[in-house]
Amino acid sequence: MASTSPRPASLSTPLLSGSIAPARAANGHANSHSHRHHHDDSDAAASVCDDGGGDPFAFLSEDRPPRDRGVSPADPFRNATPAWGGGVYAWARTLLLLPVAALRLAMFGLAIAIGYAATWVALRGWADVQERPREGAGPMPAWRRRLMWITRISARCILFSFGYHWIRKKGRPAPRELAPIVVSNHISYIEPIFFFYELFPTIVSSESHDALPFVGTIIRAMQVIYVDRFSPASRKAAVNEIKRKAACNSFPRVLLFPEGTTTNGRFLISFQHGAFIPGYPVQPVVVRYPHVHFDQSWGNISLLKLMFKMFTQFHNFMEVEYLPVVYPPEIKQENALHFAENANCSNYVVQMAWVKDMYGVNTAEAMELLENFLAMNPDSDGHVKAQEFWAHFGLDCSPLCKKIFHYFNSGITDSITFRQFLVGCAHLRKQPLFQGACETAFEKCRDPETSDISRGQLADVLRLSMLLPSDDGMLRLFKTFDVDGDEKISRDDFLTCLGRFPFLIAFFAAPINGEVYIEIV
Transmembrane stretches, by residue range (predicted)? Predict the structure, then answer.
């Protein structure tokens, strides 16, 4: 049995929470708080693992995460701009810019004509692309690539005519030798034009695009990889071509839009996994179109109407962020395949704009959380049950583990979705006391001589929270914290692990609160 030093039953201590109790009263929650947490002095020794309710993260903040909003009624393909209206300002701007729009249209047509002519000359006499790019064709000769710079500059002029006078870029494209595959979100027809100018990559495209006037000739110069989505043989051939061209530095980068269609940019939808099967390093790119009055996404809006609206804007904003290169190990490829083929993707849809505004979570962080969630073996509906959730960390469903799990779904169901996992983790990370609690936990648990945490010391801490994992489970949890795999948990290991899995901070509530457990033999 164990005894503790006297303390309030709530984990909200002056060390971590300051004036949390008055804040509750000020917010009108004093009654419910008293009903749930009021104890007299005889209850002071209650364990944090008591199964009678309570918030395992009360020592961070009194706030609860917002309830999962379920399947959003919003349409990820809806363009939010009114059809032809938009108020007095929109009409006034349109009328004022009609002469400018005419000039822009002329510039657009001239740039198309020059680019097409240069491309026609660059392809003249090249047998590999006279009809259409054939499988196994070699890379474009150097002199033809140099001639294509005329077309690339024409593409930049096209962007200028659409109102993209300057484009804000963050980060840089990785060298082709380092990341032969580039993946990007797909919001409008503008991204292919931008990447044509910026990278001149090889793209994967529907066979129907080859017959489009002007466009078919230009994408042929990019040594396009054609695919018929409805033909398994065609998809397999496309993957083989991606592998072949990614493996040879004489070819340009391979650019893929894994969502397979355009969205309004406020949702993350399911990925086609062709970019990830070859196993080469991938550089993700995020494209954004900040706006106030005009949504530039190519969703439920005709191409001509979208072009007209672009021509009648003073300036259209575009941001391109090159993210760090991802080196997918084999296990991640298997998870990607499992996810893409077997998951009910509606439970993975996340309104990224809301998550970013509310919690500051960027796309790269969301993808890391998705990777962690997939490692927990979600079922075909995209749900993870408590047993599978904690088995990932080598733990059983102890009372404290159940409380932590219920934090994500308010105890309503026995499973959680990716949306709930993302929102819960993001909410914990955002708490003003979270980082300080992580630092305090490490200082209380580390060995004074080595300034590290050993496996035995981690086991001692878990005993304070009434967690008694098996030897194999203890080893698995220790490896989760031992990020660099050097058989000890350094400060950087500890903080990195809690950054990835912030809910694990609840295991360290006892040392943070200064509790001392004495085992009576």
Answer: 105-126, 147-167
